[in-house]
Design brief:
Length: 812
């Protein structure tokens, strides 16, 4: 082992700078990869960790003797077999909420009496919500406010006022829309804000709750419109929601409850696409690291193996020679792993975004043990493999006349170089091609094969990234790919029958529209049977004018009869079904067997979960489950000759009184996932830039190494009559030939990888896969790469010009 140590020390002394650079490079690549992969998993798991940390319930239900919600026997509900525990509280709705001036509504510009008060009915009852700032209230004059609009106007320490409705009025006096009679309201109650809280099912920040204390409940438990409510934890978590929904409707057919299914969907669709892209970035960074750092490590190992035949002659075994190289691999691997782990942990507080950052219970340093350990082991293992394998192979290489190792293929002339000579290109071009494609002999040899493979793969990755970016841009700019086939959408889910009675006839009569489809949307439809039952958001759509305007279909068709259903690709996977299957579907106490006839791409705007999730049926089919459902939405297309702006202005005038939003030509801005895709359009271009830099670094390293190792060859060319200009031209031709070979291999390979990558991405997302080839960047890559190769060669060419044959060849 002393021989191994001695040789390893000598090798490190001679090439210490390269070891340091490789270690730093491995650490940087590992840090970025760990950070990206950890961030992706952190986003994916944020909602589950938030629910666990906040002890969030799966269901909230309420019953009122006098108020918004019908009465319900909460004792029966809380004793249902799937209920694990329950926290009882008082819900007062409506309540007025004001700032300290007693006039300005607490929650934005809305009606002050759209607020509600929540108060626990036990002194030790936990509040199942996330405290975002401040502390929980304790006294009767303290409260929390919801994080959304309330947080914009009230801060910790501020005084707010809540105003109850008096017993002297009836519900009709309040809900009729008329002016409340005198004495309708109690005296305003001052409360000190002790904290900002994220209430259940409020990831969008639209809740208008004021959360108070048990002492407040004791003081005001007999208030008007005070309802008994419960936060329910189910034994199997979200998986028990379908069973609970059926069971609670047996207790009270018109029971009011809402579950966390929609919240889970909101969290998922807000983080899913970002997680996919972040994870993709992490793996592409791994690939880039292998192309740049890995190739450099292989090349260093090959270059360091020149003396292997001499070491064998001195008595070192093949294993000992390999052990010398492994010392470098261990230093690079262990050092890079330590740098990667330390750097990724240091930046972890800044790797969470959007809703994931909002709900993540961890705000400081974050470590994913699985990813971190796997990555650290991977860095060490890859470094050892990239040094050990070529070292073991070269340790048995034959020696040349001078005793130096001969690289594989060193005796074969390049056919490309021979072909260039046969067509009459300058001798400097032929010499440059031989330098680029022939490894050379002995101590002047350079590993050209690894250079060609590395450059080709890097060019392929660069072209693939440009293709992925083009496909992403095409996806964002083509609404049909993510489900939207109409020109406009409008609706008012909270106006009861008014939208159906007033808005639909106006839309149907307007000659500016050729096609129109109407319907309703419900978010509690249970699909499947046994353990595979899932809760699905349901679109009930039927055409009333012209051709149907329904979501884009990946397969099959939209239902046309009441006993048919269409399911998104993700929902189909969740229940293990396929087109043509007949499955049980239930809601509101009704169960029917429906035939799956289509696989739609559901747009992710409005109340929909988006893309591959959800169910579609006819409007009448949806009414079988929800008989009271009225038309609450409409989608359509403009006539080709219509003035869209004029039609929009006319329709908006009619719909404004119903608070129905009319969205012509802006549907692409409504979906959370589509917005995320828009924000992520430039991410693939970052990938392309990353691989471009990787290609430049590889080419520069190859040229510098070649000029340094082949000084003897350049000196011989000078002796044979080459002028300095021709020597420089030879190095330039070497760079150009390497670039051209990499382009010939890399461009078509990159186009194929880009298409396959986008198809896989779109399929996982649940949208239509239409890969686009980035022809302009692919075509531009050829002249640009050649021009850059020439520019890169200037420095090494100038160095080659200074070669002094007498000094280089004096040993000969």
């Amino acid at each position: 082992m002393s021989g191994v140590r001695m040789r390893a020390r000598a090798d490190l002394r001679d090439r210490l700078a390269s070891v340091v650079v490789l270690t730093l490079g491995a650490g940087l690549v590992g840090a970025i990869a760990i950070t990206a992969l950890t961030s992706a998993r952190r986003s994916d798991s944020a909602y589950a960790r938030y629910r666990s940390a906040a002890h969030e319930p799966e269901v909230l239900t309420a019953g009122c003797a006098n108020g918004f919600f019908p009465p319900i026997d909460l004792d029966k509900v809380t004793s249902l077999p799937m209920v694990a525990s329950a926290e009882r509280f008082m819900l007062v709705n409506p309540v007025g909420a004001f700032l300290a001036d007693k006039k300005t509504p607490l929650y934005g510009k809305r009606d002050a009496f759209q607020a509600s008060v929540i108060a626990p009915q036990r002194p030790d009852a936990p509040l199942p919500m996330k405290l975002m700032e401040g502390r929980y209230p304790e006294a009767s004059n303290e409260a929390l406010v919801a994080w959304g609009p309330g947080y914009e106007h009230a801060n910790v320490g501020d005084t707010i006022y809540v105003q109850m409705i008096s017993h002297s009025v009836s519900p009709d006096d309040i809900f009729s829309g008329g002016k409340p009679p005198p004495g309708a309201f109690e005296k305003p109650i001052p409360l000190t804000v002790t904290g900002i809280v994220l209430t259940p099912n409020d990831l969008n920040g639209t809740d208008s709750s004021v959360v108070t204390t048990y002492p407040f409940y004791e003081a005001h438990k007999n208030t008007e419109f005070g309802c008994d409510a419960a936060a329910l934890h189910l034994k199997r978590g979200l998986a028990d929601i379908p069973l609970f929904g059926d069971a609670v409707l047996q207790v009270q057919p018109n029971a009011f409850f809402f579950d966390m299914t929609q919240e889970a969907i909101t969290a998922g669709r807000s983080t899913h696409l970002r997680s996919i892209i972040t994870r993709l970035f992490g793996w592409l960074m791994v690939i880039a690291g292998l192309l740049v750092v890995g190739q450099a490590l292989i090349r260093r190992t090959i270059l360091a193996s020149t003396e292997d035949p001499i070491l064998r002659a001195l008595g070192m075994s093949r294993g000992q020679i390999t052990g010398v190289a492994l010392v470098t691999g261990a230093i690079v691997g262990v050092g890079g792993a330590l740098i990667a782990v330390a750097a990724s942990v240091a930046v972890s507080p800044f790797t969470s975004f959007g809703i994931a950052k909002l709900i993540d219970p961890i705000h400081g340093l974050y470590v994913d043990p699985g990813i971190t350990i796997a990555a650290a082991v991977g860095v060490v293992a890859v470094a050892m493999l990239l040094t050990g394998l070529p070292a073991w192979r070269l340790a048995a290489a034959r020696g040349g006349a001078a005793g130096a190792a001969e690289l594989p293929g060193s005796g074969r002339p390049s056919r490309v170089a021979s072909a260039l000579g046969s067509i009459g290109l300058p001798v400097s071009a032929v010499a440059g091609a031989r330098l680029a494609l022939e490894p050379g002999h002995g101590r002047t040899a350079t590993p050209v094969r690894s250079a060609v493979i590395g450059l080709s793969l890097t060019v392929a990755a660069m072209v693939a990234a440009f293709g992925f970016a083009a496909s992403m841009r095409h996806f964002v700019d083509t609404p049909a790919l993510w489900g939207v086939t109409g020109d406009f959408g409008t609706g008012s889910p909270f106006s009861g029958k008014l939208f159906q009675q007033r808005a639909v006839p106006v839309l149907e009569r307007n000659p500016g529209f050729t096609d129109m489809t109407i319907g309703n949307f419900q978010n509690s439809l249970y699909v499947g049977q046994g353990d595979s039952v899932v809760s699905a958001n349901a679109w009930g759509l039927s055409p009333v004018k012209g051709s149907p305007v329904v979501p884009t279909m990946l397969a099959g068709r939209w239902p046309t009869s009441d006993d048919e259903i269409a399911l998104g690709s993700i929902t189909l996977d969740q229940i293990g079904a396929k087109l043509g299957d007949r499955i049980p579907v239930s809601a509101a106490g009704q169960t029917y067997d429906l035939t799956i006839v289509g696989e739609p791409v559901f747009p992710d705007f409005g109340f929909g979960p988006g893309f591959g999730q959800g169910a579609g049926m006819t409007y009448d089919g949806l009414k079988r489950f929800y008989p009271d459902a009225t038309v609450g939405l409409a989608m359509g297309r403009f006539a080709s000759s219509a003035d869209q702006q004029a039609v929009s202005d006319e329709i908006n005038h009619e719909l404004r009184g119903l608070q129905a939003a009319f969205q012509p030509g802006k549907l692409s801005n409504l979906g959370d996932s589509t917005k995320e895709a828009q924000r992520s359009e430039n991410v693939p271009l970052v990938f392309a830039s990353l691989f471009t830099l990787a290609a430049l670094a590889t080419l520069i390293h190859v040229l510098i190494t070649s000029v340094r190792r082949r000084r003897k060859d350049l000196a011989i060319l000078r002796t044979l009559g080459f002028k300095k200009r021709q020597v420089a031209s030879t190095v330039a031709w070497q760079s150009v030939v390497l670039a051209v070979v990499a382009l010939v291999i890399g461009v078509p390979t990159g186009i194929l990888i880009g298409r396959l990558g986008w198809s896989l991405f779109a399929t996982n997302l649940g949208v239509v896969s239409v890969p686009v080839v980035a022809w302009v960047p692919a075509a531009a890559a050829v002249p640009v790469t050649i021009a850059v190769a020439v520019l890169i060669s200037i420095g090494p060419a100038l160095a080659a010009r200074r070669t002094r044959p007498a000094m280089v060849l004096r040993a000969e």
